[in-house]
Write a structure and sequence with these properties.
The chain contains 20 helices and 24 strands. The chain has about 550 residues and is α/β, with parallel strands linked by helices.
């Protein structure tokens, strides 16, 4: 109905009187408006002053003066919106050693990890005493099936402090020099919401850290960050080539907000960035000069972020039932743990709700999901709050009912089905629970708005793989993880466009191709609605437009 009204509206306009000239006119035989009609159409889009000013037939478009670009059978869609990720962290990732396993990196063993670190030290010309950082190692994919220890990293160097961030970003590994600089030893106690792993039957740290226990090392290791502004520019290029026109900086800090603002002032940011500073540490008071909900340049503070638990692939997510196979030195009853107690979650949610500040809460495990649900229920939110449950990977059917009632929006880490689906089935959850991770179909059946994300740089911000993973749910081994949770290509695209815009309170300006909306567009090599879902991975991003300006072209 909405689509028919839209067509009537544009056809009733006098083209000659209303639209004489545009900055840019894009045409395609495969335009997907994302306003209800699940079919691509031959349409032209006129852009002026960063906005879409007209949508209509190719015939009428010929009468509009301006630069014309015809993409033929290549599809035009609303620009992809990053429903959850870490823009400043992705920037940082461009300057450290890539320790990821295929297909993101080439590390399959601890020996290969060590070799990559030695190569990084040499190529970076790091001097003794300078920090070495690596990102993305994955114990589930290393042949040793374990984290590197301090001995493993001491074998790389005893002259450089070394700190590695696990692929989940919820654990890390350090060498002896790094531990010494952080004053971590046998006397150091586990902090609330974190663990220092130790050798069996000993109080001596083995170099592996979980959650909050890793924070001191992370802070020290940030001295390895040599070119912050340049790294932001690199991150923007990565987003643009993946068709992303709005990115998120979830779990930002005062420093990273300042970095993004500085980069924007230097013209290094060419798409919108929505920042969510961590809200459980009093940071709000430090950034009160920044207006929530409105852009300053290309940067907007969208709300606050609460981190309730850890990661399922790292086995620190907080579950109601024990892990299928417990991690290092844990009993068979191990269920993970919360990062903050229920009382604090309820306190923060109530406080921010009263201030009308949107809340985004990281909750991987279903026990953590219970914590957020309880807090929102207690806060008695009557306004349009659009509270987001980030990841929500193990939410149960009864929890989805509660979330629908409380208007909590789940944002699913759907690429987990590919990257860690086999690991989840065989080690983390067991088959029954693993089949239901990221329950998109259950959400769709309840008519709940939901989004999907990559959580970059945990995995690259590859929106094509995200689309493919959400529709196919195939693991690395090629097995389908939860046939009943598959959704259509169109529903997955909604989660990446209009639903993501809605999540960010931006559905009035983004997420569909309509007159008056921001000219954020992506051009794909084929129409995703006309090809089999299994072939979606073959799609390529041809071009990306942010506010009507081309920020990526595959031919350039």
């Amino acid at each position: 109905m909405r689509y028919l009204f839209f067509l009537l509206l544009i056809s009733s306009c006098s083209l000659e009187q209303e639209i004489n000239r545009a900055d840019l006119i894009l045409s395609s035989d495969k335009v997907i408006l994302m306003i209800g009609d699940q079919k691509a159409q031959p349409l032209s889009i006129a852009i002026k002053n960063k906005k879409i000013i007209w949508v209509g037939s190719h015939k009428n478009a010929k009468n509009i003066q301006g630069k014309h670009i015809d993409f033929g059978d290549q599809a035009i869609l609303p620009g992809f919106i990053d429903a959850h990720g870490h823009a400043s962290y992705l920037a940082f990732a461009t300057q450290v050693a890539n320790l990821a396993s295929p297909p993101v990196g080439g590390i399959n063993t601890i020996k290969e990890l060590q070799a990559e670190l030695r190569k990084f030290i040499e190529e970076s010309n790091l001097q003794p005493g300078e920090w070495v950082m690596g990102l993305g190692y994955d114990d589930s994919l290393l042949s040793e099936q374990r984290h590197p220890t301090k001995e493993d990293l001491d074998a790389v160097s005893t002259e450089h402090p070394i700190y590695l961030i696990h692929v989940s970003a919820h654990l890390g590994a350090a060498n002896s020099l790094a531990l010494s600089l952080a004053n971590i030893n046998t006397e150091t106690k586990d902090p609330p919401g974190g663990k220092i792993r130790r050798y069996q039957n000993s109080s001596e740290p083995n170099g592996v850290f979980e959650e909050t226990a890793a924070y001191p090392l992370q802070q020290l290791a940030m001295s390895a960050y040599k070119d912050p502004i340049g790294s932001v520019k690199s991150a923007m290029e990565i987003y643009a080539k993946n068709g992303i026109t709005t990115a998120q900086d979830g779990a930002s800090s005062k420093e990273t907000i300042g970095l993004m603002q500085a980069a924007d002032a230097q013209g290094k940011i060419n798409l919108d960035i929505i920042s969510y500073p961590i809200g459980q540490n009093g940071l709000l008071k430090e950034i009160d000069t920044i207006s929530f909900g409105s852009y300053t340049g290309r940067i907007k503070i969208g709300g606050i972020k609460l981190i309730l638990d850890g990661s399922p692939q790292g086995k620190t997510a907080y579950l109601t039932e024990p892990y299928y196979k417990p991690p290092h030195s844990e009993s068979d009853s191990y269920k993970g743990y919360p990062l903050i107690p229920q009382s604090e979650v309820s306190k923060w949610v109530k406080e921010y709700a009263e201030l009308k500040i949107p809340i985004m809460a990281h909750a991987n495990g279903d026990a953590a999901a219970d914590m957020l649900i309880e807090a929102v229920e207690q806060a008695n939110m009557n306004s349009d709050h659009r509270t987001i449950m980030i990841h929500a990977q193990t939410v149960r059917e009864d929890q989805l009912d509660q979330m629908r009632e409380l208007e909590i929006i789940p944002s699913y880490f759907s690429t987990h089905t590919f990257y860690w689906g086999d690991w989840h089935r065989d080690s983390v959850f067991g088959e029954e629970r693993a089949m239901r991770i990221s329950p998109t179909k259950s959400s769709l059946d309840r008519n709940m708005p939901f989004t999907v994300h990559n959580d970059a740089p945990v995995v690259p911000p590859d929106m094509i793989r995200l689309l493919w993973s959400t529709t196919n749910r195939k693991t690395r081994s090629g097995k389908v993880l939860g046939e009943e949770q598959k959704i259509s290509t169109y529903a997955a695209l909604e989660a990446m466009t209009i639903n993501a815009a809605y999540q960010h309170f931006e559905d009035d300006i983004k997420g569909t191709i309509e007159v008056g909306k921001q000219a954020d567009l992506v051009v794909l090599s084929e129409d995703p609605l006309s090809i089999h879902p299994e072939k979606l991975l073959n799609l390529k991003v041809v071009a990306t437009y942010s506010k009507g300006t081309e920020i990526f072209n595959a031919k350039k």
